[in-house]
Amino acid sequence: MKKSVFPTCGVCSQAIVIELTDDDVVSKVEFIGGCQGNTQGVAALAAGMPADEVIARLSGIDCGRKGTSCPDQLARALRKMIEK
Question: With a threshold of 0.85, does the pTM exceed it?
Answer without folding.
Answer: yes
